[in-house]
């Protein structure tokens, strides 16, 4: 017995009934602005199965690396707002890139609609164990003793870790020379060798040196407790303006209709609530840190303000 289309839609699960006709069989493209194996790519692939189940359609991760994520973000911004294209995006593309690139091919406020924040976590403030510094007060005293010889490292100019370090130095009233390296591994090796006095970076890249005891973490730059070091002091508790963190999100083209936005958000939230998905995200680095569209919008505005101030303190000019 055949069921009329109207009746079939009435019987369908709510997330299917809200999707455009034919969307259930058309793959959903989830664009990613970084290469396969990157943190954002891994997060996209972890949430991919849950989204596919809940949306009732295949979800395909589409890696479009280059230009600091701008290539993928521009592709998203130009995509039709029909629920067939979303993006797994990292926070820096949305908050830092507008201040780092002179001719940005998209406007994150005008061209992109916020769906759900997926993960978030702080960069950790780390020091060489050989200095004997065990807390922030000890680092402040150490920098003041060294004076003009003080320095810090980062994976490169314009990275969140570079900009966050300048915000931190401004808050504690200290100065140090920035030493940019080619990636986190080189910067952390320099820290372990005592060539630099401190840096901010993620727990994952720091872990080998932490386990060997040559590097020590003394503070958490994020607003959420660190998964591995939940008792680590948060810099924002002492210096509210110092927030050095990373986050990822699901976003869509700007004019995505509200019903599709809410279905994507529901699917993302329910996927992040799955114990297996949450556990896999915690292994990658930051665990689930869901925010729905309204709360995400507030968070995004705060992050943009922090980014603008940090770039100004770092003295970076758009390229």
Automatic annotation (TrEMBL):
<protein>
    <submittedName>
        <fullName>Tripartite tricarboxylate transporter substrate binding protein</fullName>
    </submittedName>
</protein>
<dbReference type="Pfam" id="PF03401">
    <property type="entry name" value="TctC"/>
</dbReference>
<comment type="similarity">
    <text>Belongs to the UPF0065 (bug) family.</text>
</comment>
<keyword id="KW-0732">Signal</keyword>
<dbReference type="InterPro" id="IPR005064">
    <property type="entry name" value="BUG"/>
</dbReference>
<feature type="signal peptide">
    <location>
        <begin position="1"/>
        <end position="23"/>
    </location>
</feature>
<dbReference type="InterPro" id="IPR042100">
    <property type="entry name" value="Bug_dom1"/>
</dbReference>
